[in-house]
Amino acid sequence: MQSGTQAIPGTGGGVAAADALFGTAALAGVELGFARNAEIFGEDEDNDFVYQVVSGLVRTSKILCDGRRQIGAFHFPGDLFGLETGARHWCSAEAVSPCRILMVRRSALQRAAESDTRVAARLLAVTMNELQRSQAHGLLLVRSAQERVAAFLLEMAARTGRRQAIDLPMSRQDIADYLGLTIETVSRTITQLTEAAAIELVATRRIVLRDVPALAGLNA
Amino acid sequence: MQSGTQAIPGTGGGVAAADALFGTAALAGVELGFARNAEIFGEDEDNDFVYQVVSGLVRTSKILCDGRRQIGAFHFPGDLFGLETGARHWCSAEAVSPCRILMVRRSALQRAAESDTRVAARLLAVTMNELQRSQAHGLLLVRSAQERVAAFLLEMAARTGRRQAIDLPMSRQDIADYLGLTIETVSRTITQLTEAAAIELVATRRIVLRDVPALAGLNA
DNA sequence: CGATTTGTTGACTCTAATCAAGCGTAGTGG
DNA sequence: CCACTACGCTTGATTAGAGTCAACAAATCG
Predict the structure, then answer these.
(1) Which of its termini does chain B have fewer beta carbons within 10 Å around, N or C?
(2) Sign of the C-alpha dihedral computed for residues A157, A161, A166 and A167 taken in this order
């Protein structure tokens, strides 16, 4: 069972911002469905669209020269992704769970931003938020395995809106690649947090946060 | 001698973009000088300005709960910084070398962006570039010490425009905090790269890149 | 010139990676 | 329905790489 992935209702803020973005400008977007692990766009492909998650979960990642994969971000319903300046994509995007994705032509969005100040302002705000998220993610990568996993769980709880039980749509490999760890270390750390009674492993992909202050105490 | 810090001419692209940003809109900015290690803004302070480096080098950083410091970015002449959405600053900014900084009121910039589409577009482009830089930095943090230091040296060479000799305006501690390493590891790695004839340590803060392909070969 | 900060080097420790095996849960087909 | 398989996850043993602690050298400054 990996239900719940499509049921994630979005976090409100993101959806509202994006709605204002696309809605106000009356931008025609194409909505497409993607199967689990399907590629939405690939590295070095033409950068012609901006994307919004309607439902499901998306990861953006890059393959390192040694074959390892680094996941830069998970994108939840309402989130925009593919926000880049270059003519070609710098990273790739795949569906973690079955997704519905809204695609808007970059040129159309640009025109909309030129004619509607609110669209431009929204787009800038969304980009700045993404910048801050990226910087926060960078901070994570220099911390201990326990701190990374704890922060990840709290982030997922915050993003899915759940206070207690979180359903993780992504595999341990995805988590490891997001946190810059190996799957073994992620697994071991989850075991440790369980033994420390900070969390409870209901199922492999369903985790209950038992001691949120303890988890938060591991953070900066 | 830590000369060269004020002589860095900017990288062209950054300066041009920023000039268009501030110039076109006829934005009145205040230019201020900051001594070495002076704080330009602090974490949690009011986020009322956007800043541009005129000369010198700026670092933006955050202090972790365990006392360690993580540097998110170095900002060179022409670069904008302080691009955040929140009402308060999320990180702090300090002068690595003596700096001249142009400060523009966020509200004024926002008004300029509303009246001039080109300003809005420039601001968005600059923010997206910063996002990509931040993501690239995140990638660095999951690599080996050698790869991080090599990438750092190449980045500095690219930013300062020098092909061969780089003058590093920042201390080993700054480098370590930027790369998520300790000063000892940075020092040892520089020694290793010297022994491998990839670089040459002319002075502690002056490094000549002897084998750029070898250094680049360590990257993704 | 001494004093102080900054950088290098060495010895040792410890965390997370690696290599390898075993478990559990679908999913498949007889 | 039950092997059988395949995959994702966990656990164990060992290793490698960076951190820590400590001493020393070198540059900078008054």
Answers:
(1) N
(2) negative
Least confident of A26-40, A89-103, A121-135, A203-217: A26-40
User: Which band of pLDDT confidence, cut at 50, 70 and 90, is reported for residue B127?
Assistant: very high
Give the nearest nucleotide to A148, CA to C1': C16
Q: How many residues does chain B have?
A: 220
pTM of the model: 0.91
Q: Counting Cβ atoms within 10 Å, is residue A149 exposed (0-12), middle (13-18) or buried (19+)?
A: buried
Q: Note the pLDDT of residue B28.
A: 72
CA B147 to the chain's CA centroid: 19
Measured CA to C1', the nucleotide nearest B145 is: D18
